[in-house]
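Subject: for your reference before the review

Hello V.,

The reviewers asked for a structural picture of the protein, and I figured it would be easier to keep everything in one thread rather than splitting it across files. Below is the amino acid sequence we used in the manuscript, unchanged from the supplementary table.
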Amino acid sequence: MLQFFDKTWNVPQAERDTWVRHWVQVGLEAVEDTLCDHPSTGDFCDGEQPTMADCCLVPQVFNAERFGVDMAPFRTIRRVVQNCMALEAFQAARPENQPDAPAGSGGN
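And here is what came back from the structure prediction:
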């Protein structure tokens, strides 16, 4: 998506990153509002077992962190992602654990 953005609008990277941060923040605010008081929210987005919703949320949080979005306001999202990351499958799916990850990309 960022390559399309760069080719189409040709804006400076700082401006592009501000735009990305804004929309990631807006999306996470909507997710937090949905999860924080929803009766089906448990250890994960929907209950006590991970679902596709968790598989979609975790990469968005990684993206938010990549662009410097302040995650402090997203208490429920942070809790859910922490629960996801405690599972081996989510650890194995981390970007830096992929075979084509750049050398030195680190890992937690």
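For the response letter, the relevant points are probably these. The chain has five helices and no strands. The helical segments are 2-9, 13-36, 52-66, 75-85, 88-92.

Happy to draft the paragraph if you're swamped.

O.
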